[in-house]
Each structure stands twice: as C-alpha cells, then as structure tokens.
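User: Sequence for Scyllo-inositol 2-dehydrogenase (NAD(+)) below. Tokens please.
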Amino acid sequence: MTVETPKAKLKVALFGVGRLGSIRARILTNFAPRIELVAVCDPKPGSDKWVAQNLPAHVKFFADPEDCLVNGGAQAVLISTATATHAPLVLRALDLDLHVMVEKPIAVDIETTRVVLEKAKTKPHLKFLVPFCRRFDESYRSLKTLVDSGDLGDIHAVQTDCLDKQDPSGFFVNFSEQSGGIFVDMGVHDIDIARFYLDVTKGCPNPRKQVNRVFAVGQTAVYHDLNNLKTRDCDNGWGVVEFSNGKVLNFHIGRTLTNGFESATRVFGTKGSAIVNNNSVIDRVEVRDGHGVRTATTPDAFVLYDKSFVHDLEEFANCVLDDKPLSLLADDALEAGKIATALQYSFRNNVPVLFDEEGNPVLRA
Ligand SMILES: NC(=O)c1ccc[n+]([C@@H]2O[C@H](COP(=O)([O-])OP(=O)(O)OC[C@H]3O[C@@H](n4cnc5c(N)ncnc54)[C@H](O)[C@@H]3O)[C@@H](O)[C@H]2O)c1
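Assistant: Structure tokens for Scyllo-inositol 2-dehydrogenase (NAD(+)):
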C-alpha cells in the first residue's frame, strides 16, 4: 500500500543555530516531511557560512532577527536562541501573526513568561508550543499510558534526575546568566514531567493554587566560579515540590557527571512503581571483561532524546496544517516556569517558598 505524502508544507524560519538550533536545522531539512525550512537567523559571526555549508541553497540566511521575521517568508518560527532572548522574538512573531514553537523555558523570570503567554492567548488562531522533550519520548509516553491505566494505583510521588557530563570548557558558567540558572534551565524539565504524571489539579481545594511549597539546595562541586556570578548558581541542585493535593516531586540536577548524560524518572503508585532511563545507555551493548560489566552512557540530552526533537516538530506541523489542538498547553509551560523560578529563588536565598491562593510563588526580595 502506498501512503501519499500531504502536499501542503509549513514554512518555518529558525532562530538560533547554536547547540540545539544546529540540530534542529538538520531535522527541519531532512526529517520533517511536512515542513519547509525557508529561513535561518543568527547574528553570531560565521553563522552565514555554517548555513551555506550545511543547509540547502534555498534556505535564506539573515543576521538581523527583525529582517528575518518580516522578510523570511515563514508562516511559523522555531525559536532556538538563548533563553534570555526568547521573549522579544516570540512577542514580535505573534504580532506578525506567525505560529510559534519556542524551546523551554519561555523566559528566565515569571513576569516575562506571563507577558509572553498572555500575548499568545490573544492569538487563539495561532499555535504556540513549548516542546518539553521528555513528553515527546516514546518511553515516557508508554509510562504515561501505564499511569493512566491505573495499573500502578494512585500515583503519589515522582523522583527524577537530570545530570549533564562535565564540560571542561566551563560552558555552564557562561551559560548560567543567559539561561536563568540551573533550576530554571534544567529543573523545568523535571517539574514538567512530574506534572505530566501527577494529576496535580485532582483533589486540589483551589485549582488556581497547584503548589503548596518548594525548597531547594545546591552545591558547587566542580564549577566554583558559579558562586561569583551576580545571579549565584550551582552545579548540583536538589529540589522538593509539594503540590496542593499532597503529591510530591523530588529531583537531583547536575552538571558534573564523568560518564555522560543521565536522565531518569521514577513514578511511585499505591500498587507499584515504574522507571524510565534507569540507565541512560547509548545502545544495548554490555562489555564484560576484567573491569566487570559496563555499558556506554549517552553523551548528552541531544542523543538521549534525539527522537523527541523530531516528534515535537511533527506534532507542531500537523497541528498547524490540520488545525488540531497541541498535546500540551501554554499554561503547562507557565506552571512549570513558576515552580522552577521559585526553586531558583529558594536556592539563592536559603528559604522555602510558599505559593499564594492565586498560585504565585511568594518571592520577597
Ligand atoms: N532538551 C531541551 O529541550 C533543550 C536542550 C538544550 C537547549 N534547550 C533550549 O534551547 C535554547 C538554545 O539553547 P542552546 O544550548 O542551543 O544555546 P546556544 O547558546 O548554544 O545557542 C543559541 C544561539 O542563538 C543565537 N542567538 C542569540 N540571540 C539571537 C537572536 N535574537 N536571533 C537569532 N539567534 C540568536 C546565538 O548566537 C547562538 O548561536 C535554550 O532556550 C535552551 O534552554 C532545550
């Protein structure tokens, strides 16, 4: 049986060809059958050469974001720039009536996140997607089906870790201020996936207030320069989130592993528990020799979640072209962003953070 490929393609402009953006560019041109990459923008010197050498000749290069937004010929944008630069690009794209997919997190603070989401809500005819990569991973999706089946009973707690490999170049130190800090940048994934499995509004006396309190601690085990930043950060952090219905997330995030990148998620139910990525292996090869039994770890999130970065684009294109609803809401990104920012604040100020009846963290500084 032959399956016909639908003819209509979504014209997309990509902003940012850094670590993730360069991967996105290759996916957009090779593995996204319903998307046509029409333009790429990155003001970083040398980006024009990278585009000329790696992408098809018809992809237009822009060094100026405004020029690309107005003259790129796109119907939709994918914003893959440093987090601190997301908001102005998203707001302008929405003004120009472009569909938006923007990498997590939306912004480094709650106020900006809220401004962006309120603007997106004024444009209900446009799709707006923040693609948390674990939600687009096949194993995480299987676990969601298991959780929803009820076979694990009532899911009362989630425990995760997300641990990057050490980078001797000190990338994480320079990256910290632009990314909002480790809880905002990395912890937001753990928070989002916990919200995905814990039914956080069920049994909640006030649905606006999904969280009671959060607490975070951190260390600088390797990258001591993080202590000297204007906005202090850590290279290992632990967070606890108590949701208003009594469910709990606890997680460990870090930047100092030596074997590779690990990212595990365990859900605890009243009838059983289940875990994804207990060992973040690159393949199923096990070496057994004089050192014992060992497997190779994935080097980074881009490899462990490689298919997610294809699946999310597929969903985005399908939902725009077929006018279908997306599988996650803009409000999911807002709730995760609020909790992540509260945890970053908790770590920096050595205090627990309570949430008020409107569902906002009470940040006193
Ligand atoms: N698992 C995930 O979902 C995941 C993984 C990695 C990164 N991210 C997110 O993706 C985003 C990019 O991260 P990265 O690691 O690739 O960053 P990066 O610093 O490697 O790359 C960012 C690029 O954006 C460019 N840029 C900056 N301002 C721009 C503008 N106004 N217009 C166009 N280009 C601009 C920079 O020159 C740079 O090349 C971040 O928000 C990050 O949080 C998500």
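The mean pLDDT is 95.
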